[in-house]
Inverse folding.
């Protein structure tokens, strides 16, 4: 199909889609006028029932906990898929970058970049831990915190070099974190069954509303998901970095 | 106000699909997919919005007057963001391998080399 024919085809399809989409959106309640009764009810009961102040966390990890279980496995599946897609192919080898000029020293990263990386990565690690632990109190939680923690590792890479960052994040440890995080969610769900109730029942002590330790399984699931997302995103970055840093074709190598 | 709010959703989605259709570079195409996907985020948050509403966080600080916005939609938007990130990462991994095999990122050139 030529580009022109494709554009014409798109214009027709887009016009039809725009009409249907417009009709559908026009049927929605006007913007900002009301929220669903389900949401109003959850806003009222979540805090007294689950002893959390952040209702979004309560919904994500308790009222709609099964949803989040599947969401977590989507992420695990995607990370596993990327690991498979980006493995060394039959005509490729893994080989650390070789220094072609051993008589010349590699220039160290600029002190300004290094200092910024040290400050930024420790700050990111702190913010990540804060976001995990305060997930039941304020906006935040495992998913967001996992990404923040993983980006602390990206900053280490920016400020140093590939070999250093590999020492910081052993692949096996990251894979264990990813798998254990996903498995931990299931285990916490099974606690509900062990207690004689349904899967993912909030069986741990609920604590006092507004305290750091409150919300029962919601706080625990935040930690578990944080570990999984951290492992997953760190694996992602290292798989993509490996593509340019250590995976090379056999022919190019002398 | 409604027209503007929901119009943005339709425009974001269509402009993303337009980018996918006309793209000359696979990485650009992946970004266009995430633009189209972000329309659903905007829609979810808009459905859950209430004029003058505050975040669904109920701390015992001086109470914010007015109603809270829809927390369910925010939780769904969180799911959407995570799935979107997973899809983008998978697509980019595919792009890396396509570039290795075909030596090009142009979707049109890709079809020519397939014979």
């Amino acid at each position: 199909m030529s580009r022109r024919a494709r554009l014409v085809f798109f214009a027709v399809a887009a016009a039809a889609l725009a009409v249907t989409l417009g009709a559908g959106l026009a049927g929605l309640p006007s913007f900002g006028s009301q929220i669903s009764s389900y949401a109003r009810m959850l806003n009222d009961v979540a805090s007294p029932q689950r002893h959390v102040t952040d209702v979004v966390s309560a919904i994500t990890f308790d009222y709609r906990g099964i949803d989040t279980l599947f969401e977590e496995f989507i992420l695990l599946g995607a990370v596993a898929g990327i690991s498979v897609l980006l493995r060394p192919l039959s005509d490729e080898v893994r080989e650390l970058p070789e220094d072609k000029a051993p008589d010349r020293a590699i220039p160290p990263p600029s002190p300004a970049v290094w200092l910024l990386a040290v400050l930024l990565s420790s700050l990111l690690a702190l913010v990540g831990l804060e976001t995990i632990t305060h997930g039941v109190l304020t906006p935040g939680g495992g998913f967001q915190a996992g990404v923040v923690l993983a980006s602390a590792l990206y900053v280490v890479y920016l400020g140093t070099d590939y070999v250093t960052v590999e020492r910081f994040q052993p692949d096996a440890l990251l894979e264990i974190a990813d798998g254990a995080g996903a498995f931990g969610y299931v285990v916490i769900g099974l606690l509900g069954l062990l207690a004689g109730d349904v899967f993912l029942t909030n069986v741990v002590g609920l604590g006092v509303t507004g305290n750091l330790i409150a919300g029962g399984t919601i706080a625990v699931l935040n930690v578990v998901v944080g570990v999984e997302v951290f492992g997953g995103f760190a694996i992602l970055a290292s798989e993509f970095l490996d593509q340019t840093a250590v995976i090379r074709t056999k022919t190019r190598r002398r | 106000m409604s027209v503007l709010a929901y119009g943005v959703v339709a425009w974001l989605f269509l402009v993303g699909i337009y980018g996918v259709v006309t793209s000359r570079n696979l990485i650009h195409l992946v970004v266009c997919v995430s633009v189209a996907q972000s329309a659903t985020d905007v829609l979810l948050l808009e459905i859950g919005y209430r004029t003058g509403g505050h975040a669904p966080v109920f701390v015992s600080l001086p109470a914010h007057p007015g109603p809270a916005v829809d927390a369910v939609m925010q939780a769904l938007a969180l799911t959407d963001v995570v799935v979107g990130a997973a899809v983008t990462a998978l697509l980019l991994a595919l792009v890396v391998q396509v570039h290795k095999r075909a030596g090009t990122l142009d979707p049109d050139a890709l079809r020519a080399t397939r014979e």
